[in-house]
Amino acid sequence: MSIVTIMVLVGVYFLVKKVIRQVTTPILDLAAVARQVTHDKNYSLRAQSAGKDETGQLVEAFNHMLEAVQARDAELEEARATLEQRVLQRTEALEREIAERRQIEEDLRRSEQRFAQIFRSSPVPTVLRGLNDHKIIEVNDSFLRLFGFQREEVIGRTVEELGLNADAAKVKEVSDTARRKGNLRDIEIQWRGKGGRSGMGRLFAEVIEWIKEPCLLVMIYDTTRQAKMERQLRQAQKMEAVGQLAAGVAHDFNNILTVIQANASLGQSEPGLDPMLKDCFDQISLAAERAAALTRQLLAFSRKQAMQPTVVDLNQLLVDYAAMLRRVVTERVKVEYNLNPEVPPIYADPTMVEQVLTNLALNARDAMPNGGQLIIATEEVELDHEFAQHHPRAKEGRFVRMQVTDTGVGIAPELLPRIFDPFFTTKEVGKGSGLGLAAVHGIVDSHGGWVEVESEVGRGATFSVFWPVHTSGQPQPARQGDTSVIRGGNETILLVEDEPAVRGIARHILKKYGYSVIEAISGKAALKLWPAIYPHISLVVTDVVMPDGVSGRQLAEELRRTKPELPVLMVSGYSPELAGMNSQQMDGCQFLAKPFKPAELARLVREMLDQAKATNGGNGNGQSSNGGNGQ
Ligand SMILES: Nc1ncnc2c1ncn2[C@@H]1O[C@H](COP(=O)(O)OP(=O)(O)O)[C@@H](O)[C@H]1O
Ligand SMILES: [Mg+2]
User: Fold this and answer.
1) Ligand closest to CA 463
2) CA of 422 to the centre of ligand 1 (A)
3) Which ligand is nearest to the CA of 418?
4) Does 413 fall in a domain?
5) Which positions ≥6 away from 432 have C-beta within 8 Å?
6) Separation of 447 CA from ligand 2 center, angstroms?
7) What residues have CB less than 8 Å from 170, skipping those under 6 apart?
8) Residue 513 to residue 433: CA distance in whole angstroms
9) What is the percent of the chain with per-residue pLDDT over 90, rounded to a whole number?
């Protein structure tokens, strides 16, 4: 090898070395950086700059590219982060929405449940029905209770099929009006339920949409009880008004009748009387008797009749009264008795029991113009709370039931509620007063009992009177007419009465029986007289209700301050209770109802005087004598 060759080779060697140093090394560097970038995904790495030659430019370009990639990567990273953030947010929002929706659904379900519960448990009977087909979709419990149906009996059936409205035409009318106006307010209806249930009601309705169908939500307020109470109140008010009027009239009438009856009696008993005049007096007496019976009826139903209750054996009373009753019903009517001998005594005014019986018998007679049968029955009944609840008039306890049954024309159902009204009569003018049953009702009611009627047109009627059983004591014989001669006396009697005619006749009677009479026209007047006369007075006969503010009772109390044993006879057209004498009667006080017969007054006066004498040890200021005869 020549030197030249060697030199060339050395030159080449150095040249190659330079090339390697200047080109290959930066490229290998570049490759290493590229590998590392790929491996680490670290775009912030840079290759080392390698001057301005091609390799340097290559490195430069590579670094530029890395810069761009890095920027892009940062952008991408940011976009990914934002996206992730958004997905997260959206997911959260969705979760919230779902929870909210669930809550809403839950609330809705709860609210529906609550509404259903309100609907079901509402005390107002409510029904949801089709507006057009009238088919029932839903009803609540109070509806079922009021109408008496089971739910399955009504759902799917029409209002007409079930006959819920007494007036079927009204159902369509309700629908039509509701369709026009959207609702209905306060319509009066008569509802009908299962098994004869019925009553009055007020209807409210609202048109609503129910599962795309127009429906009617109907509410019915049951006003049956209220209507009944209103009717009863009106009836009570009517009775009260008529009773007041009747009592007023009867009171005055009694005063007048006392005068007529007493004068007729005195006339009748005049010795050696012309038979024609005697007949006249008899007629007057009879007419007065009839008028007195009428005022008794008036007072009976106004409950202001003088009542003198005793313990009464009802069977005995009926037997004693049988002859009288037969006369009342005439011989066309056969009277039959069906008396249970076991019935306990009742506590009643025997005259009033007779009055009840007479009125019922008279009606029975009138109901059987061609004759028939009258059955009078007695029975003890014991009624429990349950029975009393279901019978409007009935009470709980032991009662003696007195039934009066006839085979007459009967009473039409629509008249039944009215027959006890005062002045209600189906009889022609002059035949019926319409006071009979009103009096019966008044009497029985004031005895703590009641009356029930059952009747079928063409078959007859049964009136059942329930008298409360007397709980203690023995039955006394029903009042007996005292036929013994009434004795008079010579005692001095203070007579206090504001009505001049009554005072006149009372004086007349008392004088006729031998008594001395000092008169006073009022309670006040009597009090004025008293200090001067009291040592002479053996008994006081006084009216109870007097105009100047001192009643008979007050007078009696006042006079007894100076004379504690003084017997006082109260005379009144009102009952003892109304006359202010109530049950706790004063000792030595008696009560006489107007109109009274002369003999009744005379007998009572004598009885009281004798009684006073017996208790005072016979130091009275007069003595009895066999004076005039009352009749
Ligand atoms: N036993 C009966 N049978 C048929 N109807 C009766 C009977 N009792 C009462 N009535 C009816 O009740 C009405 C009222 O009776 P009441 O008060 O006694 O008055 P009056 O007898 O004066 O008509 C009678 O007019 C009659 O229509
Ligand atoms: Mg009658």
Assistant:
1) 1
2) 11
3) 1
4) yes
5) 366, 425, 426
6) 20
7) 189
8) 39
9) 44
Indicate if the pLDDT at residue 220 is higher than 50: yes
Q: How far is the CA of 434 from the centre of ligand 2 (A)?
A: 6
Q: How many domains does the chain have?
A: 5
The reply to whether 325 falls in a domain is: yes
In a domain, 477, yes or no: no
Record the tokens describing residue 478, joined without a space: 């029903």
* Judgement on whether residues 450 and 312 belong to the same structural domain of the protein: yes
Q: Say which ligand is closest to the CA of 410.
A: 1
Rounded distance between C-alpha atoms, residue 263 and residue 80, angstroms: 132
Q: Is the pLDDT reported for residue 14 higher than 70? A: yes
**Cα–Cα nearest to 265, from 625, 558, 512, 569:** 512
Each residue's pLDDT tens digit, 383-437 = 887 777 666 677 889 999 999 999 999 999 999 989 998 888 999 877 888 889 9
Quick one: which atom of ligand 1 is closest to the CA of 439?
A: 17
Contact predicate 449/468, CB 8 Å: yes
Spatial separation of the C-alpha atoms in residues 491 and 622, rounded to whole Å: 4
313 and 462 both lie in a single domain: yes
Q: Largest alpha-carbon pair distance within the chain? A: 217
- 440, 468, 496: which is the final residue of a domain? 468
Verify that 436 and 329 share a domain, yes or no: yes
Please determine, for residue 578, whether its predicted confidence score (pLDDT) is greater than 70: no
Can you tell me the distance from the alpha carbon of 524 to that of 546, in angstroms, rounded to the nearest whole number? 10
Residue whose Cα lies nearest atom 18 of ligand 1: it is 436
Cα-Cα end-to-end distance for the chain: 203
pLDDT tens string 339-365: 998 899 999 988 889 989 999 999 999
DSSP assignments along 519-581, one per residue: EESSHHHHHHHHHHHGGGEEEEEEESS-TTS--HHHHHHHHHHH-TT--EEEEESS-TTTTT-
Do residues 317 and 445 both lie within one domain? yes
Q: What is the CATH number of the domain that holds 161?
A: 3.30.450.20
Q: Is the pLDDT of residue 575 over 80?
A: no
Please give the number of the atom of ligand 1 that sits closest to the Cα of 421.
17
Range of the domain at 55: 19-116
Q: What contacts 321, CB < 8 A, 6 or more positions away?
A: 354, 357
Measured distance CA(174)–CA(183) in Å, rounded = 9
Encoded amino acid at 326, one letter: R
